[in-house]
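User: I'm preparing a small set of examples for a lab meeting where we compare how different chains pack in three dimensions. I only have the primary sequence for this one, and I'd like the structure in token form so I can line it up with the others. Please keep the answer compact; I'll paste it straight into my notes.
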Amino acid sequence: MEFDINFSINISSFFDRKVNSKNYQSKAFAKNRRLNFLAKAGVGLNMFRTLRQELKTEQFINSYSYQWLSENDFQDAGKFHNEWHENVVEKTFVLGFITNYKVSKNVILDFSVTGRIGGNDKWDAKLSNKADMFMFYSLGTTINLGKN
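Assistant: Understood. Below is the structure token output for the 148-residue chain.
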């Protein structure tokens, strides 16, 4: 689960200045633009639990926010997770790129690529002392149901 705050910057507006410098009507162009490019940056808090096992045998390797149960020689390690309020909390840095295409007056297609960079090496439960990072790709649709 993640909570984050992001700031979006419309990169397409930089193209408007270029068009305006060539004596085009920039406002009309920007209003009717079908393709937009945005960049986003932000910070967040990621709350998670993770379990690392062998792929074929499912033998326990490491975990965070799971009970290890050493009293039975770790046979049940990774089987019982802690409560949500006991999970690992990770600060994240968010960087992303968004493209949207205006199909019609009421329908917009969105594609985004967002990278999240963590401050430690716990997301994958691998002990390599490097900061973890993951990428998220998203394709969606925005539909305006109201009057324009």
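A couple of notes for your slides: The radius of gyration is 22 Å. Strands lie at 2-10, 35-48, 50-53, 60-64, 88-102, 107-118, 133-143.

User: Perfect, thanks.
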